[in-house]
Structure to design on (174 residues):
C-alpha cells in the first residue's frame, strides 16, 4: 500500500499538461517506420505498479496507437510495446532575495533565506520494440510533478493526456 499512493500520483502527474509535463522522444533514424502496421504488448512485460494504474496506462496506449497507424494484433505483430515508470524525490531550492529599505534614520538591508521544498517527480517511459529483431526503435518519455491529491477520474484523464503527448511525434517526421 505504501508504494500504491506514489505510483498513482506518478501516473497523475506525468500526464498533466502545461509546464508540469515535459515530453521527449528518441528513435533510430535509420528505421523505416512506415513498415510497422501492427502492435501487441511485450510478452512478460512486468511493471511494478498497482493494477488500476497499469490498466489506465494500457487503456490509454490502446486508444492512442490507432491514431498513429498502428493496429493491435496478437501474435506476429510488427511492434512490441512496453512501459516503465519511476518516481524520484527532488529538492527545489528557491533563490535568496535582497531587499533595501530606507526612511528616517539608517538604511536597512534584508536578505531572505533560500527555503527548499521537496517534491516527487514521476516519469513514464513508453518503448516501441521491433518484434522480430527485438530492437528498440522508438522511446517516449513524459516527466511531471507527482501529486496524490487527484481523483481517480483526474488520474485517468492525466494518463490519457500524457500518452497522447508521448505519441504526438510518432511516427517521427524525417
Amino acid at each position: 500500500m505504501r508504494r500504491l499512493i506514489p505510483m498513482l500520483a506518478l501516473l497523475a502527474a506525468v500526464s498533466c499538461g502545461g509546464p508540469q509535463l515535459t515530453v521527449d522522444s528518441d528513435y533510430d533514424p535509420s528505421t523505416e517506420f512506415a513498415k510497422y502496421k501492427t502492435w501487441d504488448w511485450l510478452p512478460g512485460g512486468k511493471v511494478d505498479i498497482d493494477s488500476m494504474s497499469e490498466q489506465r496506462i494500457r487503456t490509454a496506449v490502446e486508444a492512442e496507437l490507432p491514431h498513429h497507424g498502428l493496429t493491435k494484433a496478437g501474435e506476429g505483430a510488427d511492434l512490441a510495446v512496453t512501459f516503465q515508470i519511476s518516481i524520484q524525490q527532488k529538492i527545489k531550492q528557491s533563490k535568496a532575495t535582497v531587499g533595501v529599505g530606507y526612511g528616517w534614520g539608517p538604511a536597512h538591508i534584508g536578505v531572505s533565506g533560500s527555503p527548499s521544498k521537496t517534491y516527487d517527480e514521476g516519469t513514464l517511459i513508453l518503448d516501441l520494440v521491433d518484434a522480430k529483431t527485438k530492437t528498440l526503435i522508438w522511446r517516449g518519455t513524459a516527466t511531471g510533478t507527482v501529486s496524490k491529491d487527484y481523483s481517480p477520474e483526474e488520474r485517468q484523464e492525466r494518463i490519457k493526456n500524457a500518452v497522447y503527448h508521448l505519441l504526438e511525434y510518432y511516427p517521427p517526421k524525417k
User: Anything to note?
Assistant: Residues 4-92+119-169 form a domain with the Double Stranded RNA Binding Domain fold (CATH 3.30.160.670). Residues 54 and 81 are 13 Å apart (CA to CA). The beta strands are 21-27, 38-41, 71-72, 79-93, 98-101, 108-111, 116-130, 135-145.
